[in-house]
Design a protein that fits this description.
With 269 residues, this protein is of the alpha/beta class. Helices cover 51% and strands 14% of the residues. The strands form two sheets. The protein has a six-stranded mixed sheet with strand order 1-2-3-4-6-9, with helices on both faces. It has a three-stranded mixed sheet with strand order 5-7-8. The termini are far apart.
Length: 269
């Protein structure tokens, strides 16, 4: 492994093929939940990948039965309780999305099992998103008691249309891999046993292709996302604002206590 990636101790990195880097969320005992340190590393690694002359394509996947269960409860609690942590996470949440968008190499996600939160950011933003039939994609923001920030508002309407985006982002209903493909949220759905093979074949094809043509095409297409930057900034700021209120505290408590949330019914907005 190149010294370029020595600092990324919370992510498993390997080279499954020539000029292909694979990034694996590797906390299978917690369904690959993302703690604060992992969140920071996941934000920053895309700049190093961008500058790595030995890499032409990236695969992102999860170890074990899940892609990623999203931010862990300690990270969420620190956002609730600590204003400095709240601001830091807000900056990282913005940087994560923009760093993935601006990374010059094509990214392929192999979504296995549950995909939520910060992990889902990369899974959905990937240039080619491939999921297994047993994938379970959930945007859990409103269930937690905060606005749908992260990548939700910048790309879900573009991928699956505003009506479907509103339905799934407001209700937090889960999507199977097959339904995600049907509505256009992901590029492709395959049999679970074929997921890693198809992802690797796709990465190798892109890695062996005309690099300037592929990278310029990605750059041009991602202008659809860049023009919606103000929309994304607003949604992420509103998500972080939500962590200052009672709804987010009840959302976290209900997750910890494994019960339905009981949110306050009055709202001045």
């Amino acid at each position: 492994m190149s010294n370029r990636y020595a600092a990324y101790t919370k992510l498993k990195l390997d080279y499954p093929a020539k000029r292909v880097l694979r990034l694996t969320f590797d906390r299978p005992e917690t369904y690959n939940s993302v703690d604060a340190e992992t969140h920071t590393q996941l934000t920053n690694i895309w700049r190093d990948i961008n500058d790595d002359p030995d890499i032409n394509a990236i695969i992102v996947t999860g170890a074990g039965k899940a892609f990623s269960a999203g931010g862990d409860f300690e990270l969420i609690k620190s956002i609730l309780d600590n204003p400095v942590s709240r601001m830091s996470t807000w900056k990282e949440a913005k940087d994560l999305v923009y760093n993935v968008i601006n990374c010059n190499k094509p990214i392929i996600s192999a979504i296995n099992g549950v995909a939520v939160g910060a992990g889902l950011v990369v899974g959905i933003l990937a240039d080619i998103s491939i999921c297994g039939k047993s994938a379970r994609i959930v945007d859990g923001h409103t269930r937690l008691g905060v606005a749908a920030g992260d990548v939700a508002c910048i790309i879900w309407p573009l991928l699956c249309g505003l009506a479907k985006a509103k339905y799934y982002l407001l209700t937090c209903k889960p999507l199977s891999g097959e339904e995600a493909e049907r509505i256009g949220l992901v590029s492709l759905c395959v049999e679970d046993a074929e997921l890693q093979r198809v992802a690797l074949e796709t990465a190798e094809e892109l890695s062996n292709g005309a690099q300037s043509a592929i990278r310029w095409t990605k750059y041009a297409l991602n202008n659809w996302l860049r023009v919606n930057g103000p929309l994304f900034d607003t949604s992420t700021a509103l998500e972080i604002l939500g962590f200052t209120g009672a709804e987010a505290r009840e959302g976290l408590a209900s997750h910890l206590e494994k019960r339905k949330p009981v949110f306050p019914q009055d709202c001045p907005i």
